[in-house]
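## Example pair
The file below holds two records. Each record gives the amino-acid sequence first, followed by its structure token line.
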Amino acid sequence: MIVHITQSVVDVWNKFKQYRANSTEACGILIGHYDMDCTRIWINNVTVPMKADIRKKTYFFLKDNGHQKILNSIFKSSGNKLLLLGTWHTHPEKSPTPSMYGEVNDVAEWKKIIASNKAIPDFCFAIVGTQENSIYIRYQNKFERLNRIVKV
């Protein structure tokens, strides 16, 4: 699987990196599309943290319905081509990995998202670190980091 990410998405992520000790996690949804054969994913848009979202140092909760409103608008204006691909959030680490412990377990949350959205072929989940970004997809009931990420 190859993931293509637009520069505008990378620019948004760069604004929210957790460089300071008191930074809170930022979060949003990923919006884009898949190839016909589902071998490539394009992340074209992301939402940014909103007023009702819960943001703490080591967890987030997407609570604001503004994310859904933006998704609905982009979906409609794209002729139903751009859709929900997954979520993104930040971690205060250079090379981010999914949280396994603490207030929120990333992998457990990802499994909940997948279970409630069975129509999406392959959800992807991005974690924005201080030096690099990691994107994970589920493969054979495990989450694997994708190594083929192309900025477009």
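Second record, same layout:
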Amino acid sequence: MPRVSFIVPCYNLGHLLRECVDSILMQTFGDFEVLIMDDCSPDNTPEVARSFSDARVIHIRNEVNLGHLRNYNKGIELARGEYVWQISADDHLRKPYILERYLSVMDKHPEAGYAICPAVTLYSGRETQVVRHSVLSQEDLILNGRRFLYTLLTHNPVLVPACMVRKECFHKVSMFPLDLPFAGDWYLWCIFALYYDVIYFAEPMVNYREHEMSMTNSLIRSDYRVLSQDDLAVRWRMKDKLWALGYDAMARHCEDIIAKEYVRYLSQGYKASDCKMGWEDFERSLDIHGKDGKDRGEIRRRVLVGYGDAAYWQREFKESMNSYGRAMREGPVGLELWIKMLLSRLGRAGWIARRALGKLIQISRRIRVSYRTVFEGRCGVPMKQPVRAIAL
């Protein structure tokens, strides 16, 4: 039984398959299998897959196209290894010792569910830059899973080709959810972090290829709205899971992020103006994800306040007053919202006063952080540090 199962999904990527598989075969640790998951690809994938003479390389061709998520799950079910490493045929490993490094630490830390590292982008066959959002630190770390989840709920720093997962995570927690075509992997990193810690290596040891045929670009071309829909769905599911498990503080944090994302879509759009969400889209999303009227009402109130803030800072005072007023009708009103409404009524004078008040609050927060830095010896660590980690 191999220690590690590499799953290599391939669809119309036969021209890149050899480079990917060769980067696996050159690893200094050799106890692994390579499952080429050929999703009924119409190109020369079968010929390339059969050209490898190494017995560790196994070509599995689907009779019909399963789609990427079902193909991923099929590969996981067929994997015999203790660890699963999924790497698409268009990506590859940069270093021959990456598998050895991952295993040496994962074996010592059974509480860790997966290991990750930053990646370097490939464009037109040339390395360009390190993927910035995949960099978490300049040193190797063991990340507390639930602390890391705070970061994951904000954004996804985990790149699939840079991630090796303990197979039990899939069997005990979750496989790829079939209804999240764009963010299925993000959901897994979040849900796994609830139950396992995470190993982080600072060295970029994987190449992540950017090209028109990538899965992300294919999804964007088919329906750009799937990106925003999946981003929201991951957070809604995690919010419900966190409440169910009793992690109230983290669930409220997740609600804050959900509200901020809605405000971003409603006020600015997502990466392009034609992705802008309308209020009807927002209400439809609430109906899909909200458990009940109370749940929907709480998110709606937060979004209306956030949207009012965004309009206010653009000096659209009537729009902000309208949004604050709608928020007041959603439930109990706190003093802060009354003050915001009053300042909106004052127009430009209120805007100047609120801006000055905001600066005073920022100064107060900096003083508190400096105080804790001096008296707790935290040396520059923010008050609300999302990831508590120990160096390897």
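Notes on the second record: The chain has a mean pLDDT of 88. Residues 35 and 163 are 16 Å apart (CA to CA).
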